[in-house]
Amino acid sequence: MNRFLIPFGLFVVVVGFLAVGLTLNPRELPSPLVGKAAPEFSLPQLHDQGKTISSNDLKGKVWLLNFWASWCGGCKDEHPVLIHLAQSGVVPIYGMDYKDQRNEALAWLKEWGNPYSVVAVDEPGRVGINYGVYGVPETYVIDKAGVIRYKQIGPLREDILEKKILPLVRELQNQ
Amino acid sequence: MRWLWVLMLLLPSLATAYEAQPLAANPQAEARLKALAVELRCLVCQNQTLADSNAPLAEDLRREVREMIAKDMTDKEIIDFLVSRYGDFVLYRPPWKLTTTLLWVGPFLLLGVGATGLVFALRRRQKKVTDVILSEAEHSRVMKLLSERANRP
User: Fold this and answer.
1) Cα nearest neighbour of A129 on chain B
2) pLDDT in tens, A113-152
3) Which of A160, A116, A157, A152 is nearest to A131 (CA)?
4) Residue B137 has what DSSP assignment?
C-alpha cells in the first residue's frame, strides 16, 4: 500500500502544478509601472497633424490610454467594447496609434468607428517603450494625478470592463 | 558591332556592391550592444534574447539601447531603464528577490530531496541484505558442486 502511496502523492502534486500552470498566461507580465506616474508624452494628433496631444493636458481627470494599430488583430476584437464604452461616456479613451501608417490608421477608424477622444501618433514606438508596451492592444487606467492604476494586456472584454475597469474608474473619479 | 560588345562587357563594372553596413558606426558600441542584448529577453518571442529576435519591438529596443550607449550610460543604467518599464522578466538572469527565491533555490531543494531519498532507500536495502550462515551440510554440498563444475571438461 505504502509503495504506491508515495508515487501517487507525487503524481497528484505534479498534476496540481501543471493544472495551475496551464491556466496561467505567460504573455501577461505584471507591469512594474502600475502605481507609478504615467510616462509623459507630447505627440502629434492623428486627425490633425498640426496639433499635439500631451499627457499633461489630461491631468485632473481619469482617462484610459489604449495602444492600438491598424495592423493589430486583437485591436479589432476589442474594438466593439471600446465603442460601447465611448458611447456610455463614463470615461474618455485616448488612443495611441502605435507603429502605424497614418493613412491606414485613419482608414481603419473610418471603417470601424472611432471610440477615441483624441488619437496620438507614436510612429517610432518610443512612447510605447516608455509605457512598457510589448504587444498591442494594451490599455492603461490613469488617475487624476497622472498615476497608472491598472494595465490591461491584450484585448479588452466586456467582463474585464465590468469587473475591473469600470469599478476602478468610478472609485478614482470620486477621489 | 564590336563597340556594342565592348559596351556590354563594360556594363557590369557600373554595378557597385557595398559591404554590409555595420550596425553602428562605432564597433566598440556595437560590441557593448551585443553583450547587453544576450542578457535581455525579447518580450514578444519570450524565449529569444534581444540579440536573436527579429520582432519589431526587439528592433526598437536595440535602437533604444544603442542610443543609450551613445549617451555613455553605464550597463546598469541601461538595464535599470528596461527593468523599470518591463519588469524583471526582461532579464535572462532574474535578480535575487523574495519573489524569485523559489526559482533560484528550487532546483537545489529538489536535488536535496532526491539525494536524501536515495540515501534512505540505499540504507533500507542494505539492511535487507544479511549474511546467511551456512550449515556444515550445506557447506560441503557447495564444495561438492563447485568441484564437480571444476572437473568438467
Assistant:
1) B85
2) 999 999 999 999 999 999 999 888 999 999 999 999 999 9
3) A152
4) H
Residue B108 in any domain: the answer is yes
Residues 47-76 of B with CB under 8 A from A: 56-57, 60-61, 64
Q: Kindly identify which residue of chain A lies nearest to residue B46, measuring between CA atoms.
A: A27
For residue range A44-58, list pLDDT tens digits in order: 999 998 999 999 999
Q: Which residue has the cell 498591442?
A: A136
Residue in B46, B56, B85 nearest the CB of A33: B85
Q: How far is B82 from chain A (nearest CA, A)?
A: 8
Distance, CA of B1 to chain centre = 65
A67-71, B22-26, B65-69, B102-106 — which is least confidently predicted? Answer: B22-26
Q: Tell me the pairing of strands A148-153 and A138-142.
A: antiparallel
Interchain CB distance below 8 Å, B43 and A33: no
**Residue at B104 is within a domain:** yes
Classify residue B41 as left (phi > 0), alpha (psi -120 to 50) or beta: beta
Any A CB within 8 A of B86 CB? yes
- Closest by alpha carbon to B51, among B32, B29, B36, B70? B36
Range of the domain at B113: 97-130
B40 touches chain A (CB under 8 A): no
Q: Is residue A18 part of a domain?
A: no
| CATH of residue A112 | 3.40.30.10
